[in-house]
Amino acid sequence: MKIEIVTPYQNIASDEAEEIYAVGPRGEFGVLPGHAHYVTPLAIGRLYYKKGGKRHAFVVEGGFLEVFEEKALVMADHVERAEELDAGKSKQELDKLEKQLGQGNLEAEQYEQLQRHRIKEQARLQAVSEL
Asked: Among 12, 13, 39, 43, which is most buried by a count of CB atoms within 10 Å?
């Protein structure tokens, strides 16, 4: 099946995929060739596809995935390629976020913002570890 990954600013990837995995509002899901027409919002998380036994991993923030006619179109707000990420930096940032979240004296909006950032750093680490 064909996969297209785009943001409002650029075409990130256009390739053939044997299987695709992404994170939606209800958790991780997979798409295989022959999948029925499907549209879902994407959550902050890892997205990867397999081609020839190799994984191509990304971190996606917002947007939608639509599957139709042997094609998967990922329209994301922001995408990062796993090979461009720094695992050490993400680990440091995650440690810092864990400490901030553990303080307990955060306002609801600040807590939610830190949680979203934490989820993104976890997705970055997961994407890098799967290369």
From this structure: 43
